[in-house]
Design goal:
The chain has a ten-stranded mixed sheet, sandwiched between helices. Helix content is 27%, strand content 16%. By secondary structure, the chain is α/β, with parallel strands linked by helices.
């Protein structure tokens, strides 16, 4: 109770007035879109002409990442600006704690009309409106690709049609309602696509049936991987899973349908862009595009996400706001999901709550000389419904990717991304570990003396950065 009262007091102190200079802001979140899945990035087959039109005129974040690669934990990090060990949405079933302040709450208090449209997922059995939103359109859990049951401002409505199309129409309807108002608006459009069970729009079905999908990484390339990675190849998250369970038929068909679902997302962005262009709002509306996590397409013998490989944690992201940034720019700074809330609040000229752990990148975009991170923490907590992936704590620096595992007898992973960008050569893959007494680094020191100084430095930095974020590699959050 005391914590909730303090959070409420903090929200009240953020102020309730708004300025004529506050921009309209649209945040678009895609589900499970991997970082390279845009034709703007010269992908070999995906077609995203409408998204490309925005991306090529934007500040594009080449190194955008999530701090936990799983739907609900990442979405909670976006809303709260906090790492998973703080907001404690550890899996896809847990709701955000009621005392947590989210950035839409601050926007609403600061004078914005706020709307949420689409997939919420945190506490998935409940589709009712959440705090911080003036207008609400959502559904339970993952929802359905077709004929969704929507909760519209507390009233259930059975809709007919393809869900991405329906959500797009709902978004445009909200935008229309804001045409003659003086208050700024914030709209959070959260697509269900392109999550499993992949169901493309009927008009797109079969578009990529002739596309040749690259095969999964061969098993012989997995010799230096942890045992859990090797075993996962035949699990729900492995490239050798049983694809007949959901009528995909094959690995190839699985990713053909994944690709076809992206076409509906692109058309959604096109329809929104056309509306904003027609009403004269496109140039002055700040649009942020992001994905809740990446997606593996057979790399390391895996599909899905959760792991700390680049394909899983890296996402497409850009800011389109021609009124402020007229020239396209490619940014190589680390931009994280926890930075979205602080950045949006900064753009809206509102105070950022002290308990948000992310940082606003807005000053950097404006050319200000501010210190910026050169590394970040990654964490994932074992999900009792997806036991194939262990708890992990990792550190991603500009050169190295270092992953440690908690509670399993297995190898840690270290990759020199300058020499090995595909993360095939685990520099710790030859460690013979666990036959005697001692932690993993003890064995590294004895067996790999040349690698040990690098590992020791990264390990110490991992522990230090977690501590600064009020976290720990020993999950004391369970107490």
């Amino acid at each position: 109770m005391k914590k909730a009262l303090l959070s409420l007091l903090g929200l009240l102190l953020l102020g309730s007035t708004y300025s004529q200079d506050q921009p309209n802001i649209i945040f678009i979140l895609i589900d499970d879109q991997r970082y390279d899945f845009l034709s703007y990035l010269d992908h070999p087959w995906i077609e995203t002409p409408y998204i490309d039109q925005l991306a090529e005129r934007s500040i594009f974040f080449d190194r955008a990442y999530v701090t936990t690669s799983l739907c609900s934990p990442s979405r909670a990090s976006i809303l709260t600006g906090q790492y998973t060990h703080i907001h404690r949405v550890l899996d896809n079933d847990t709701p955000i704690p009621p005392d947590m302040i989210t950035f839409p709450q601050v926007l609403q208090k600061g004078g914005y009309t706020t709307a949420f449209i689409g997939k919420w997922h945190m506490g998935g059995s409940d589709s009712s409106p959440r705090k911080g939103f003036t207008h609400w359109v959502s559904f339970k859990g993952q929802g359905a690709y077709e004929n969704p049951s929507l909760n519209i401002n507390g009233t259930l409505s059975q809709e007919q049609g393809y869900t991405p199309d329906i959500l797009t129409d709902q978004a445009i309807s909200f935008l229309e309602s804001q045409e003659n108002t003086e208050k700024p608006f914030f709209m959070y459009l959260s697509h269900k696509s392109i999550h499993e069970d992949f169901t493309p729009a009927p008009r797109h079905e079969g578009r990529y049936k002739e596309v040749s999908i690259p095969p999964a990484t061969p098993m012989e390339n997995q010799v230096e991987k942890p045992q859990w990675v090797k075993r996962q190849r035949k699990s729900w998250h492995g490239a050798e899973r049983e694809y007949s369970i959901q009528n995909y038929g094959s690995y190839t068909s699985f990713f053909q349908k994944y690709s076809e679902c992206m076409l509906g997302v692109d058309e959604s962005i096109g329809k929104l862009t056309e509306y904003l262009q027609h009403t004269g709002q496109l140039a002055k509306t700040a649009i942020i595009y992001f994905s809740d996590n990446g997606y593996l397409m057979g790399e390391h013998g895996l599909i899905d996400k959760r792991v700390m490989y680049e394909e899983s944690i890296r996402v497409p992201a850009f800011l389109h706001w021609p009124e402020k940034f007229s020239e396209p720019v490619r940014m190589d700074n680390f931009f994280l999901n926890v930075d979205i809330g602080p950045t949006i609040l900064d753009m809206a000229q509102l105070s950022i709550p002290e308990d948000m752990q992310g940082k606003s990148i807005y000053p950097l975009l404006k050319g200000e000389d501010i210190p910026w991170r050169t590394s970040f923490i990654y964490e994932y907590f074992n999900d009792p419904k997806a036991v194939q992936t262990p708890t992990m704590f990792g550190l991603r620096t500009q050169r190295y990717s270092y992953t440690t595992y908690y509670g399993v007898w297995d190898l840690f992973e270290l990759y020199d991304l300058e020499k090995d960008p595909t993360q095939n050569d685990n520099l710790l893959g030859s460690v013979n570990y666990g036959w005697g007494y001692g932690d993993f680094l003890t064995y590294v020191k004895r067996q790999l003396p040349k690698v040990y100084p690098i590992v020791k430095k990264l390990d110490e930095e991992l522990t230090k950065e977690l501590a600064l974020l009020k976290g720990s590699r020993i999950p004391r959050w369970t107490k």
